[in-house]
Amino acid sequence: MNTPGRLTDPEGLKPGWQHGAGAEGDRDLHFFDAVLAKLRSDYKVDEKRIYCMGHSNGGGFTYLLWETRGDLFAAMGPSGSASAAVSKMPPKPAMHIAGRNDPLVKFEWQQQTMDAVRKLNGCEAEGTAWAENATLYASKTGTPFVAYIHPGGHGYPAEAPPLLAQVFPRAREA
Hints:
The chain has about 170 residues and is of the alpha/beta class. It has one domain: Alpha/Beta hydrolase fold, catalytic domain (Rossmann fold). Helices cover about 35% and strands about 15% of the residues. The chain is built from four helices and six strands, in the order αβαββαβββα. Strands 1-2-3-6-5-4 form a six-stranded mixed beta sheet, with helices on both faces. The chain is globular.
């Protein structure tokens, strides 16, 4: 649905996800709730294996879901977004995917969000190399954080999904 964007399309002429709690009448949060309820009614859903990821505006919506529905998820995988509501989110294993040369969602903004999530998750200050372009920050509370910082711009890197597929199952073990 057409949605005013914070960084682009302030008139809301293009589709997008709501950017914050209460925006757009919470229509996208209600949509998420309806989809999850339908999945639960039609299929056997492993409540310990519900994950969320999104890129760009969808990455922002991933952070909004983390803020407003965080207890539902085992782990999160936002990309190309930044959030101002980290203090409202429950600690959760996560992987943030950022482009160092992102012209839209400035890397500095994403770095601030990643720093805040590491603090929220009780991560160690120093990370260890985990994969190419990826640093793992361990957490004694079982909520590790992976920062995947690629040299590109705002695009979603092809190598990200396989890495998320490694991070998400480990979240259940934490």
